[in-house]
Amino acid sequence: MFVKKTSRPRTVTLPNGQILTMADLPPTTTRWVARRKEIVVRAVEYGLLSRDEAMRRYGLSDEEFDSWINAVKLHGPAALKVTATKRYRQG
Prior knowledge:
It is a single chain. By secondary structure, the protein is mainly alpha-helical. Helix content is 42%, strand content 7%. The protein has a single domain (11-88), classed as Arc Repressor Mutant, subunit A (Orthogonal Bundle), CATH 1.10.10.
């Protein structure tokens, strides 16, 4: 088996000690729940996946992905829950 060479890391270690790999990313046809959104945001944030690659892979718009990033940055992963959007939405 051959491993494709890439300039990005194959694994990243998150601040909580969790190791994130490409195998941990959600499938391209997925039902979006907060945990899967957080994994994609963290993968981009820590360099496992480029922003453009994530948007292309998952069919996300700039606005949608930016909203995920801002929600995590301002309020943490709980803000990615669909049921919590009203609570965290900027007025």
